[in-house]
């Protein structure tokens, strides 16, 4: 799937990463936040935040395969939190807006987001509704020409810095799959949080450089014209948006896992025990070969899913398989690599231990492994009947 043009895009992205991101990673990890506006503006100015977004709203207008190439490139950032934050901007919070939003909405929200002038976050999960999206409680009640929003959102990546949120909320009563809408919700005015919006920072096991917030809404008003697409279609739009989020997550992990294996090869080649390098042990180099094979098979599933998506087909089953396999491999590969680093693997001062912490998230965020298995079973036609 990767042509010379795809490779050229990746090379260009990696040069920007090496110049503008990697020199600052250690500080951002220590600070538990990175300057999203500054970094995103550099990415946006280069066109990288809109690789497959419409040209009329600042994007490159390329097909989805180029977005996969971009995701592979940012997966190489040594701090997983930075790559994840970028992916929120490109593959998690904007696909539905680009596809279903009015021209006014896309001019007001998508264009400055693609340019890197705005930072966006996705507001779906709640403390009592993570993978069970249909059970969310946040409401957007009609009042005149506005919605009045009440509720809260949990685990919001980019939340502490975001200018706006792609919010999923209940806009009516009734069927929980038909009573939700996606809304472009401005979070700040003049650099400060709008009245009625408060946030708490969440401290995480990994992904330290990415800020994560719990967000509360108390009678927050937003014009109804800021709704994305038709009222009541938000659940459907979000399920489609999830597929690009999940494939993006799996794609970034391919590069991260490849890097973890390569760094482990170099470390075990240099590390000596009993008169020879650790890498010289057949158990070690055979295991690394097995892991590399698994990672390459994951890449193949991702490319196949992308091709289905580009042809207009439904990539839900393949994207779910890719995310499931990525989550399993993130645990298997990083744990094996950390083991081969020995005592050094259990310190904070190397990329393998950071990958061990950061990459664990993919089995949880964007739909847990168990949800992926349920989706796959549904497509196989083998879901058990629900108990009465």
From TrEMBL:
Its EC number is 1.3.99.-. PROSITE patterns: ACYL_COA_DH_1, ACYL_COA_DH_2. GO terms for biological process: fatty acid beta-oxidation using acyl-CoA dehydrogenase. One of its GO terms (molecular function) is acyl-CoA dehydrogenase activity. Its cofactor is FAD. Residues 121-220 form the Acyl-CoA oxidase/dehydrogenase middle domain. Pfam families: Acyl-CoA_dh_1, Acyl-CoA_dh_M, Acyl-CoA_dh_N. One of its GO terms (cellular component) is cytoplasm. Residues 3-117 form the Acyl-CoA dehydrogenase/oxidase N-terminal domain. Keywords: FAD, Flavoprotein, Oxidoreductase. Residues 232-380 form the Acyl-CoA dehydrogenase/oxidase C-terminal domain. InterPro entries: Acyl-CoA_dehydrogenase, Acyl-CoA_DH_CS, Acyl-CoA_Oxase/DH_mid-dom, Acyl-CoA_Oxase/DH_mid-dom_sf, AcylCo_DH-like_C, AcylCo_DH/oxidase_C, AcylCoA_DH/ox_N, AcylCoA_DH/ox_N_sf. PANTHER family: ACYL-COA DEHYDROGENASE 6, MEDIUM-CHAIN SPECIFIC ACYL-COA DEHYDROGENASE, MITOCHONDRIAL-RELATED. Belongs to the acyl-CoA dehydrogenase family. This is Acyl-CoA dehydrogenase.
């Amino acid at each position: 799937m990767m042509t010379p043009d795809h490779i050229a895009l990746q090379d260009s992205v990696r040069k920007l990463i090496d110049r503008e991101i990697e020199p600052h990673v250690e500080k951002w990890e220590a600070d538990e936040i990175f300057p999203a506006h500054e970094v995103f503006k550099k990415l946006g100015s280069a066109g990288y935040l809109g690789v497959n977004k419409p040209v009329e709203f600042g994007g490159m207008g390329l097909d989805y395969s180029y977005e996969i190439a971009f995701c592979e490139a940012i997966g190489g950032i040594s701090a997983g939190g930075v790559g994840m934050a970028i992916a929120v901007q490109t593959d998690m919070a904007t696909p539905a807006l680009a596809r279903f939003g009015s021209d006014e909405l896309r001019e007001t929200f998508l264009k400055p987001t693609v340019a890197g002038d705005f930072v966006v976050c996705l507001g779906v999960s709640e403390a009592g509704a993570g993978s069970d999206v249909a059970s969310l409680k946040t409401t957007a009640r009609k009042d005149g020409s506005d919605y009045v929003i009440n509720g809260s959102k949990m685990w919001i990546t980019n939340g502490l810095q975001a200018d706006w949120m792609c919010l999923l909320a209940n806009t009516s009563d009734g069927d929980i799959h038909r009573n939700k809408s996606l809304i472009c919700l401005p979070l700040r005015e003049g650099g400060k949080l709008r009245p009625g919006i408060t946030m708490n920072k969440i401290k995480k096991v990994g992904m330290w450089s990415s800020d994560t917030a719990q967000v509360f809404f108390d009678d927050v008003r937003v014009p109804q014209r800021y709704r994305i697409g038709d009222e009541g279609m938000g659940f459907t739009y979000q399920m489609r948006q999830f597929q690009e989020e999940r494939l993006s997550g799996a794609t970034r992990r391919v590069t991260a896992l490849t890097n973890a294996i390569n760094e482990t090869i170099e470390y075990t080649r240099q590390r000596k025990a009993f008169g020879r390098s650790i890498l010289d042990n057949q158990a070690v180099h055979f295991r690394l070969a097995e892991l590399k094979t698994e990672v390459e098979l994951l890449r193949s599933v991702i490319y196949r899913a992308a091709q289905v998506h580009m042809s207009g087909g439904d990539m839900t089953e393949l994207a779910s398989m890719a995310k499931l396999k990525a989550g399993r491999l993130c645990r298997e590969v990083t744990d094996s690599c950390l083991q081969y680093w020995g005592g050094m693997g259990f310190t904070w001062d190397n990329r393998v231990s950071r990958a061990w912490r950061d990459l664990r998230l993919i089995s949880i965020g964007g739909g847990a492994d168990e949800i992926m298995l349920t989706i796959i079973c549904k497509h196989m036609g083998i879901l058990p009947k629900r108990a009465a």
